[in-house]
Amino acid sequence: MSRIAILGGGPAGYVGALRAAQLGAEVTLIEERWLGGTCLNIGCIPTKTLVHAATLYSELNERSFKRSGLVLEGLRFDIAALRKRKTDVVRRLVTGIRGLLRNAGVRLIESTGRLVEPGVLAWQGDSGEERVKADHILLSTGSEPSRPPVPGTELAWTSEEALELTEIPKHLLIIGAGVIGLEFASIYNALGSQVTVVEMLDQALPFEDAELAAELAKLLGKAKIKLHTNTRVLGIDEGDDGGYAVTLTHNGNDDDLLLNCDRVLMATGRKPRLSGIDAAELGLKTERGTIIVDDRMRTNLPGVYAAGDCVGGHMLAHVASYEAEVAVEHMITDSGRVDYGAIPRCTFTIPEVAGVGQTEADAKEAGIETVVGRFPYRALGKSLAAGNTTGFVKLIADSDYRLIGGGIIGPHASDLIAEIALACEQKLTLHQLAETIHAHPSLPEMIREAALDALGRPLHI
């Protein structure tokens, strides 16, 4: 029986533990703070709970809702109830993970752990340091918020503080227009804050398809969220009125802009967290604080693997879990390798944005000739019936009509992207998508219609 020890119990660690147990291994999992990791406790899950409430609130205030014959009086947010709901959802999921690990026979140690040497993890027990020896080690220590080297960033909220909902600022300035920043922009905008977002690059969602990002920027503007791209923060100071004064520069202009706000949220991304790992002493190869691994998730140390945010790259919970499964399967069965060609990317703004595979810019840079098809929500019966017609579906195929990427902006984009991800993973063609019967009326019809558009034979546009 293989013995596997895992350092870190987030989406990589606990999923790796469960998969290893399925494969018959004896598993020890050490987690020092949050079982379920950042995602479950202060990331994906609590933010989605808030986004769900914010989206409902926004929809109920839409004129289209009134056109459906439904009239509400005195609609308002109960912040305390919303905060409790968020906490309850997290607690329930953490309890569920604890039960899964127990039922799988995983030994869970909730303490501060460290990598002593290849094959040995240690933790602080009640009577001193204890150790476990294993055939293989999986490092999955996650990540932490990254603060840029700007004076005054210690005055700003991180996403953790923003999730607490202790106050709803009159004016919230968000630094960073990536996934984290824009999700909080949608949440706090719905809660009543005036929101300004600052991004140093030239588009919101810098790593998403430019066409989707441009559409999102336009829709955020309609929601009265102010977005400043090509703008850097020079410093944050305490204001005279108890708020904050933020100095900005646009395109490196000599004339700086001073912006006053009630709160600042630092949403400039995350960086790997190597807690309990002395890379220099151990001889573990890293680059800019990131653990270096191969396509089997092996580090340079014998028997030591790593997965999740600590290896950098795609810092997404579903990628972390995938990497951990690949790692433990290679430990035990000597099979499996990672393939990042069809990873879904989801941003839970209002409306949602989702993408997978290559963007048009990616394909152009790679010298791939593309065929592109689109279909708007406004031309779909299901969307018209629901009174929400914002957004479109976009498919990107190569010259052989094989799907290489796609994106969606609009309601339920995070759900709809799964079909495009499957098509990219299985290298399906536009013809195969077009030949697949889709239920009517339904939102996935847009994917078939976009395929028809790319093939030059659209039916409903």
CATH superfamily of the largest domain: FAD/NAD(P)-binding domain
* Beta-strand content: 15-25%
State the low-pLDDT regions, or none: none
How many domains is the backbone divided into?
3
Q: What is the rounded Rg?
A: 24 Å
The overall average pLDDT, rounded, is: 94
Helix content: 25-40%
- Lateral arrangement of strands in the main beta sheet: 3-2-1-7-19
CATH domain class of the largest domain: Alpha Beta
Measured between the Cα atoms of the first and last residue, the distance is 60 Å
Overall geometry comes to globular
SS-based class: alpha/beta
Q: What is the CATH topology classification name of the largest domain? A: FAD/NAD(P)-binding domain
- The CATH architecture designation of the largest domain is 3-Layer(bba) Sandwich
Strands, count: 24
Main beta sheet strand tally, sense and closure: 5 strands, parallel
Total number of helices: 15
Write a brief caption for the model.
With 461 residues, the chain is an alpha/beta fold.
What does this molecule look like?
- The protein has 461 residues and is α/β, with parallel strands linked by helices.
- It has 3 domains: 3-145 and 271-333, FAD/NAD(P)-binding domain (3-Layer(bba) Sandwich); 153-268, FAD/NAD(P)-binding domain (3-Layer(bba) Sandwich), CATH 3.50.50; 351-454, Enolase-like, domain 1 (2-Layer Sandwich).
- The protein is 34% helix and 25% strand.
- Strands 3-2-1-7-19 form a 5-stranded parallel beta sheet, with helices on one face. The protein has a 5-stranded antiparallel beta sheet with strand order 20-21-24-23-22, with helices on both faces.
- Helix 1 (13-22) runs parallel beside helix 5, helix 1 runs parallel beside helix 10 and helix 3 runs antiparallel to helix 5.
- The longest helix has 26 residues, at 79-104.
- The protein is globular.
